[in-house]
Specification:
mainly alpha; 20 helices; 3% strand
Length: 501
């Protein structure tokens, strides 16, 4: 094939973090400046390249990288409206998380190893976002599993090692099920390309039984990373990882890869019409609804702040699956926009949790009395993220829940309103007590392990400004939801194309 700008750009976007990551592995531990330069150069370069991609897709340009790896097996990276939504989220939040991680890990050991795998993790996530067929998706999905394992185990403690092993056991099993489903589907259809509206409509009805079983395998494989109950057990255990890793797991990479994969399979492999006729959407909606409520109930019982946020993620990510499972474009908009909105809200909350732990030694909800007066900007950012998760307007989370509710009514599934109302009450039940403690309880005599940074702010700038910036994103995504290029408008564009409107 002839290589040109349009055929190179998707591959270059993946390489823009992969190549710096490889070099970071070789950087000496004490070479802080060189490692920082490599990290930020890769992150900024990827952001610029994704900006070019968005502009080109908006103008209707086709971007596709194809690499033949064996006869009949081709890696395909391309950009459609859905992939642009996910790759933009990943790229923007990776840059912010990189700044945060540089500050968070400034005095830790094995930083070159950490940032090397950190870059590989993001490269795999971007590869997932840009995958043009199921083969490419599966390859990057498994690379993501292997690249994330060392990040979860980074601290090297028995708890970290145990959490990483649990994570690996779950995700490798899920990856195996996904692979079996993908290979089986390929034997029926040939290359499984992602096409808006799906590719299976022309298969004879005699194969529908096999398609149902294959969907079960694919959903199980993707449901592990998406933390669908009962496949969610790895997620709370992975909270032993450093705060930047937790942020990456919950907002950008692993859980979003699973949720994004479910969207791809339903819309661009099966197609919503066929998936509805086979009864697959009903199964997905039941799993998603149960996960939304169950995750929230478990979150209420957790004193550990990161574990409470982890079970919140179990619940919140299933909003994406719920929107995907409801037959109608409005619900699709709600699910897709929540892919972005949950990401910016949850990364804000995990950044703040990391700030409390790093600055004050506060890791539990019961230790957060008066923390708002000691760390007002961090706690203001946490408050915005928490209220957004509850669904308070005009923060981003309200927009997601509004469209999911409207979508349920449009689809004649009024029970969705009950699920959303129950979830909102449970969200309030586990977030509002934190905010009450932080703002209205008196300061303690001392903090568990207070660290005074040499700055006039409440904590070092690299830790403080990332959650402040993402909290502003949470507000802007809600306030400017109707603006051109907003996540909501982009989700509407995707829904229109998937439903052929």
């Amino acid at each position: 094939m002839s290589w040109d700008y349009a055929s190179l750009l998707p591959g270059v976007i993946v390489l823009s973090s992969l190549l710096p990551g490889v070099f970071i592995f070789l950087v000496r531990e004490e070479s802080h400046t060189l490692r920082t330069v490599l990290n930020l150069t890769g992150a900024v370069a990827k952001l610029i390249l994704v900006g070019l991609l968005i502009y080109g897709v908006w103008l209707g340009q086709v971007f596709e990288t194809r690499i033949a790896i064996a006869p009949g097996l081709t890696l395909v990276l391309n950009a459609d409206a859905l992939s642009v939504l996910f790759v933009t989220l990943s790229t923007v939040l990776w840059l912010i998380t990189t700044v945060y991680a540089i500050g968070y890990l400034e005095h830790s050991t094995n930083r070159s190893r950490f940032f090397g795998f950190f870059s590989l993790c993001v490269s795999a996530t971007v590869g997932i976002a840009l995958s043009g067929n199921l083969l490419t998706f599966v390859i990057f999905y498994e690379i993501l599993t292997l690249a994330t394992y060392p990040l979860v185990a980074h601290r090297g403690t028995p708890e970290a090692t145990r959490g990483a092993k649990i994570y690996l056991a779950y995700t490798l099993t899920g990856g195996l099920l996904l692979l079996v489903g993908a290979v089986w589907l390929r034997t029926l259809t040939g290359p499984v390309d992602f096409v808006e509206g799906g590719i299976l409509d022309d298969l004879p009805a005699s194969l529908h039984g096999q398609l149902v079983v294959i969907f079960g395998l694919l959903l199980a494989g993707l449901g592990v990373k998406a933390a669908l109950v009962p496949l969610h057990g790895w997620l709370p255990q992975s909270m032993v990882a450093p705060a930047p890793v937790s942020s990456l797991l919950h907002a950008v990479a692993v859980v979003k890869a699973g949720a994004f994969g479910i969207v791809r399979v339903v819309y661009d492999v099966y197609g919503v019409t066929l998936a509805g006729e086979l009864g697959l959407l009903a199964v997905l909606s039941v799993l998603a609804s149960f996960t939304i409520v169950y995750g929230s109930i478990l979150a209420m019982t957790q004193d550990g702040l990161k574990k409470r946020l982890a079970y919140s993620t179990v619940s919140q990510v299933s909003y994406i699956a719920l929107g995907t499972s409801l037959l109608g474009p409005v619900a699709t908009v709600g699910g897709l926009v929540h892919l972005v909105h949950q990401g910016i809200m949850k990364i804000t909350l995990f950044f703040c949790a990391g700030n409390y732990a790093e600055t004050l030694g506060v890791a539990n909800v019961s230790q957060m009395d008066g923390v708002g007066r000691r760390m007002p900007l961090t706690t203001l950012a946490f408050t915005i993220g928490a209220l957004g998760m509850i669904g308070i307007p005009p923060i981003a989370g309200f927009v997601s829940k509004w469209y999911l509710g409207l979508g349920g009514v449009e689809a004649g599934q009024h029970w969705v309103l009950v699920i959303l109302a129950t979830s909102t009450l449970l969200n309030a039940g586990y977030f509002l007590p934190i905010l009450y403690r932080a703002w209205f309880r008196p300061l303690p005599a001392s903090w568990p392990k207070e660290h005074h940074f040499q700055t006039r702010f409440e904590t070092m700038g690299a830790l403080l400004w990332p959650p402040v910036i993402t909290a502003v994103f949470c507000l802007l995504a809600g306030l400017l939801a109707a603006a051109p290029f907003s996540p909501l408008e982009w989700a509407r564009l995707i829904a229109q194309r998937e439903y052929g409107l």
